[in-house]
Design a protein that fits this description.
The protein contains one helix and five strands; from the N terminus they run βαββββ. With 122 residues, the chain is mainly beta. The strands form two sheets. Strands 3-4-5 form a three-stranded antiparallel beta sheet, with no helix packed on it.
Length: 122
């Protein structure tokens, strides 16, 4: 049985990043866009464990904001290996766009929460 992209639903949880989190992500050495102040969980609805949203990417390292009702943190991960045979391969829409070891099903292509620039923290 095949799962279509329409059948995959994102978790509705959201987080608003604080100034320290935004400063940390802005300080990472990569020519990638910065994150929005508010992010949505990119895991499938009903997942186990903490919520997660992609914050930044630096080559093959992805920085994920993970949170619960009482705490949040930013953790480095590799991309999920589903859909390709080596981490050095070019990523495309067939690759899982989550982090290695994520809960739930693999989610190909970007979810509805795109990374967009935010205003600089003063």
């Amino acid at each position: 049985m095949s799962i279509s992209q329409e059948e995959l639903r994102n978790c509705p949880a959201r987080i608003t990043l604080d100034a320290a989190q935004l400063t940390f992500l802005d300080g990472l050495p990569a020519a990638a866009p910065s994150v929005q102040t508010e992010l949505g969980c990119e895991l499938e609805q009903g997942h186990d464990g903490s919520h997660a949203a992609l914050g930044h990417q630096e080559e093959n390292t992805t920085w994920w904001i993970q949170w619960t009702l009482s705490a949040s943190e930013i953790n480095p991960y590799a991309w999920c290996p589903s859909g390709h045979s080596s981490p050095a391969e070019r990523r495309d829409d067939k690759n899982c766009m989550l982090f290695t070891g994520h809960p739930g099903r693999h989610l190909p292509g970007r979810q509805s929460h795109e990374i967009e620039p935010h205003e600089s923290v003063q």
